[in-house]
Write a structure and sequence with these properties.
Length: 486
């Protein structure tokens, strides 16, 4: 057991020590603006750095190349333990905030879910909001995707970590020959697009502070805002259009962005089946909901219906969770349809949640193939993506993932209903947590938050966010006896 755990602990300690640097961003801002959160962030930095460093120093003698099971254990440990340290500034500043709620808030940020238990966002210190948005931005590409660019220098291979961390059904594809260069390439695109988003927000009318915070939660498809009313606070069509453009960009595989940038061509978008279906689905859905809202007299003109449909459909479908109106008040078909889109709309390799568009395309083509084989038993009709036949092992993996995805939603929904949560809130809240969407319906709708949940319900949803962010198997494999056998 020691041979398995200690090599993971030494990397976990290093990850904690490196992550502690992120505390300095809100700390410096709080110090420069004389906010009352300086000590809270200073203590958070000191504790996280000290624990990480001591853990690393005590276990570094066991350092070795990470194996497959090490990657799963490390990723699950990092995503479980780092949010606990992120709660320190919140607990120290808010006298009435429990560890349960603070942990939910930081897990929500790092998993880019964007669900919150906090109110009074407009009046709380800006450094607290900076911290929440920074966690979302860091979580957007994954804490360990950045780390694999550094770990090989310390003699710890990053390949297994990257495969466990990266969402999507086809994890073995690489943009560059070395896994480290892949991580660096993805982060380069992520940083450049984040800066472009911030500048665009500023030009559209946001303050620089709001622009940088919301660029982080837009690119990460998180949905955190520094205002209780989210984008309704700005009431600006220009700001909403900037958000829509960059949410769509973030809903596309970042590998496609990198290939397009490196080749200085739009061809990677044109030949990517995920991108094509994603954009078509968004276009059709926005028109459908706009027409539906107009027909039900929710708005008096098509342009007004289109504006609110465009922003909220794209936001929910990409699992962002921003809102410029309380869409829970729309006829029930509209919000339920948007939540349904969040299940599969975002592309693999994007910062969105859900099962991913590529899995949906594979499942659809596999189902069509099975129908064909029903009529022609001897026909050979493999599932093809971009003309290439998909390995049967990938298809089996997708089917297994879908089984676990469905079972997780049913199980967690039933648990929450057993604890007293109303059915529509339990179901949509569970889907929102596992898809990393944020708002559900009922008492968990876009005009509310998750503060009304009991402690047990909050912990269940914290687990659901981690389960969804790490795509089921990374966490569930830890509960199998075979994982712990030598």
């Amino acid at each position: 057991m020691r041979n398995s755990l200690f090599p993971v602990l030494t990397v976990l300690g290093l990850a904690l020590a490196l992550f502690s640097v992120s505390f300095l961003v809100p700390l410096v801002y709080a110090w420069l603006t004389n906010e009352p959160t300086v000590n809270a962030f200073a203590i958070g930095f000191a504790v996280t750095f000290a624990v990480g460093l001591v853990t690393h120093l005590l276990t570094r003698q066991f350092k070795r190349e990470l194996q497959a099971r090490d990657g799963f254990l490390l990723v699950s440990s990092v995503w479980s333990f780092i949010p606990a340290f992120c709660t320190i500034p919140l607990i120290l500043y808010f006298d009435d905030l429990s560890f349960t709620d603070a942990y939910f808030e930081t897990v929500s940020g790092l998993t880019t879910t964007g669900a919150t238990v906090l109110t009074g966002l407009d009046t709380m210190p800006a450094s607290i909001n900076i911290w929440r948005h920074l966690l979302s931005w860091i979580g957007g590409m994954g804490i360990l995707v950045l780390a694999v660019a550094i770990l090989p220098l310390l003699g710890v291979g990053g390949s297994q970590v990257f495969k466990a961390e990266t969402p999507g059904p086809m994890k073995d594809s690489k943009l560059t020959p070395r896994i480290t260069e892949t991580a660096k390439s993805l982060y380069l695109v992520y940083v450049v697009l984040s800066l472009a988003c911030a500048v665009s927000y500023k030009l559209a009318g946001m303050t620089w502070l709001d622009a940088f915070m919301h660029s982080g939660t837009t690119m990460s498809l998180s949905g955190f805002s520094s205002h209780d009313s989210s984008y309704a606070y700005f009431d600006s069509a220009a700001i909403e259009m900037v958000a829509v453009v960059f949410m769509l960009i973030s809903g596309i595989n970042f590998a496609i962005h990198f290939l397009a940038w490196r080749g200085k061509s739009f061809r990677p978008y044109a030949v990517c089946p995920e991108t094509k279906w994603f954009l078509i689905l968004m276009f059709v859905s926005v028109l459908l909901i706009a027409t539906f809202l107009l027909a039900h007299q929710q708005y008096t003109s098509f342009s007004e219906a289109f504006r609110f449909s465009l922003f909220n459909v794209v936001s929910v479908a990409t699992t962002t969770g921003f809102a410029n109106t309380d869409y829970a008040l729309w006829p029930v078909f509209a919000p339920l349809y948007m939540i349904f889109l969040s299940v599969f709309a975002s592309a693999a390799g994007s910062t969105g949640g859900g099962i991913k568009m590529l899995r949906a395309v594979i499942l659809f083509k596999h189902a069509v193939g099975e129908l064909s084989r029903t009529l022609h038993p001897r026909a050979i009709n493999p599932v093809r993506i971009r003309g290439t036949a998909i390995n049967s092992q990938v298809i089996s993996g997708v089917l297994a993932f879908m089984l676990m995805y469905g079972m997780s939603i049913i199980s967690i929904t039933m648990i929450q209903m057993f604890t007293g949560l109303e059915p529509i809130a339990a179901l949509t809240g569970t889907i929102a947590m596992i898809n990393c969407l944020g708002p559900g319906m009922g008492v968990l709708g876009p005009a509310s938050n998750y503060a009304s949940l009991g402690d047990f319900q909050t912990w269940v949803y914290s687990f659901a966010m981690l389960l969804g962010r790490l795509e089921m198997f990374t966490i569930l494999v830890l509960f199998t006896p075979a994982f712990w056998r030598k």
